[in-house]
Amino acid sequence: STTRFDRMLSLVSSQSAGAFVAPHAAPSVCSMHHRVACTPVATIQVVDELRIQIALASRSLVQVATQLKARRQIQLKTDPTRRRQQPGQLILLRHGQSTWNLENRFTGWANVLLNERGREEAQEAAELLLFEEGLEIDVCYTSVLQRSIETARICLDAWEVAGRRRPEVIARWRLNERHYGALTGLNKREALTSMDARDLRRWRSSFEGRPPPMEPSHPHYSRTVQRYERLCAGCSDAEEALQLTDIPLTESLSDAKDRVGKLYRQELLPAVLSGKNVLVVGHANCLRALISCVQSNLRDEHLPSLGLPNALPLVYSFNTHGATVSDVPGRCYIRPLDAHYLGEGCVLFNELDADGNGALDASEFDDSEFCKIAWSGDLNLDGLVSMTDNCGERLRAEADNNADGVVDFNEYMSWWSKLPERRRGVGGGGSGASRIRLDC
């Protein structure tokens, strides 16, 4: 052990320092028979030789002791019984664009499919995940809705083709989108003109706002036998059997948080803290609810910043105590989120967001490359040149889906993804977009 070596080293050092310098030590190195032949010079030579040997031995012992200490420290660091488990990462991914996303409709629990663009986005999300150095996925969670399941399948197919291990996939009804009640299927812009704007804003932009409940005559009524059976297939063995009356007919974001929170506490967080990287493929508002479970410091005014763009991975990292880790150099954050986005869309949005508040106003669009190109008149980007008057305000209004006067990251990416290809080359995002493509 290192303690034994320390004692030996101490003994040898004390001997080398004084044991052989005393004059009476000289006779001990000469035999009694040859004592007369021992001269003071010979004695000094023998003592010097012994000192050299002892010094070399001492140095060797120090080196051995140092090596043993270093080896023991390495063992302590790598021994799983002696160190705290390093947590995994929680990767949140909203499904790719659906047909109703493109039509700007409230989707909720309606089982709408991905469109072609949504399938492309799922493939792009897989590329972003594969590009992340050292990332492995240990388990994947989805909702029981088809757009979530298909997005996960496309991502994991690409993951497997790239030679990565395909993780287990678990469907959970608690990851379904927030239930929009009677709003389900309505166009969001049209709803602004047919309903009280204050009610609509409260339903969409507060934790407690709850839309009117869905009636049995609604074409996407939730409490049918077919939908009930699909939900039951996504129940955990640990929870009580789902009853038909448990199925919501409307939800606030707070309701969705309670629903998702049980899954987070019972399955997702324990998996992450055990060292697993967990991919959750969900929906805009169910992931908003999940984020509010991860970050308890979020309030109503933060809600617009919590919306995830379609198929753009958001990654939470944790320390050994389970607290989120943020401000890591080289990662892109949009406050108030403690997670970082993959891809360059976040970087480009932050370049436009001059005041760093997580939302774009008309003046920030005025300073963007969209309006600069429109003012220059050098390129005709599908009508941008005709927008030189109040360019920033016009672009803000075009992208501001909830009419709150600013454009958050989710609205920006949604607006950008719907632009014609020639306009998307300016200020774009995604996995491979350039900032300005002059070949358009």
UniProtKB/TrEMBL annotation:
Substrate binds at residues 94-101, 107-108, 147, 177-180, 188. InterPro entries: EF-hand-dom_pair, EF_Hand_1_Ca_BS, His_Pase_superF_clade-1, His_PPase_superfam, PG/BPGM_mutase_AS, Phosphogly_mut1. GO terms for molecular function: phosphoglycerate mutase activity. Keywords: Calcium, Glycolysis, Isomerase. It catalyses: (2R)-2-phosphoglycerate = (2R)-3-phosphoglycerate. The record marks 283 as: Transition state stabilizer. Gene3D superfamilies: EF-hand, Phosphoglycerate mutase-like. The active site is at 95 (tele-phosphohistidine intermediate), 177 (proton donor/acceptor). CDD domains: HP_PGM_like (cd07067). GO terms for biological process: glycolytic process. Its EC number is 5.4.2.11. It comes from the Eukaryota. Belongs to the phosphoglycerate mutase family. BPG-dependent PGAM subfamily. NCBIfam families: pgm_1 (TIGR01258). PANTHER family: PHOSPHOGLYCERATE MUTASE. This is Phosphoglycerate mutase. It comes from Coccolithus braarudii.
